[in-house]
Amino acid sequence: MPRVGVLGPYPPTRCGLAAFGAGLADGLTALGAEVGVVQTAADERSTAPQVIAHLTDGSPASIATCTALLNQHDVAIIQHDYDSYGGPDGADVLEVVEALQVPSIITVHTVLSAPTSRQRSILEALVRVADQVTVMSDAARRRMGEVYDVDLHKISVVPHGAPTLPKTRPSGRFGRPTMLTWGFLRPGKGAESVIDVVDSMRDVAGHPRYMVAGRTHPSVLAQEGEAYRESLVARAQGAGVANSVVVDGNYRGTAALTELIQSSAVVVLANDSAEQVTSGVLAGSIARGRPVVATAFPHAVELLGTGAGIVVGHDDPDALTAALRQVLTQPRLAGAMAAEARRLAPSMGWPAVAEAYLNLARRLTARRSAA
């Protein structure tokens, strides 16, 4: 059983990569692996037993210490996103990876279609030095080959992990049907687009409501406070739908979040960008067995293609309205979508995803031993 070091954000930091890091570390531990986490970009440092060090941005001594600790494991898994490390576009991560003496797996969260020259060079250098690279969708792997000068043989697809479904299903949904957008709140998730079509749902049975659930993303909060959240509330008031829109900033743990998602009639991901090849919210919604209506960003096109949801064009309020009405008014269709989501869910659960990473780690350690 390989000992695994994991580098990246980790709770109590509240961001998607921190949630991913915790899910992966816990999943590997549940399989019997010894896991040591080096936490990055931490205003709040974790005191969890798995966390063995904290990487301080811009500190050569911290980089050296953390690298040495990762080298005490058999394999190092490095989460990569451009804002997770110090230096321009997170370039400090290269110092860590280049100094590793153990096999490395780079988990790439963001694959840009039009990177800057520096962003391109950082990602290409990471792939070049890494023993293995994982992305979270076929679309991401294709983009890596089309946009970057990389060895595609190193790159494999491992789904974005998510909590598994509870053993017991919720007994039912009560009250107004809920259209739900969840996750850390920031511009670009398309909440405005959904608010703008809420009034057209007033004749749907049960008088559906739209809920935006989640704390403001830490980077947005640091730059502008709660101005964006307040703008959504003002938009709902201006559209005359304040009684049908809830902007909920409460933090929910895994169990409470799962309960909220499963109680929704449909999850709405009206992302503004057509760029996104990885969406943890999309994976988490499908893993909880819910129908999804999403704009046509690549990860949504890929995951919803077998019937777990409906994909609509960007900037097309009529299509968004029609898709939401279909799910809200056609129980058989909604049930079929939920059933397909539940069929897909096991492959996205943390047990399966952690097993995939553990298999990669075993393969790399065996290869290194045989060399």
Automatic annotation (TrEMBL):
Pfam families to which the protein is assigned, alphabetical: Glyco_trans_1_4, Glyco_transf_4
Keywords: Glycosyltransferase, Transferase
Lineage: superkingdom: Bacteria
Secretion signal, residue range per the UniProt entry: none
InterPro entries: Glyco_trans_4-like_N (IPR028098)
GO molecular function, one term: glycosyltransferase activity
GO BP of this protein: lipopolysaccharide biosynthetic process
UniProt keyword annotation of Ribonucleoprotein present: no
Domain Glycosyltransferase subfamily 4-like N-terminal span(s) in chain numbering: 23-162
PANTHER family per the UniProt record, alphabetical: GLYCOSYLTRANSFERASE WBBK-RELATED (PTHR46401)
Protein name, UniProt field: Glycosyl transferase family 1
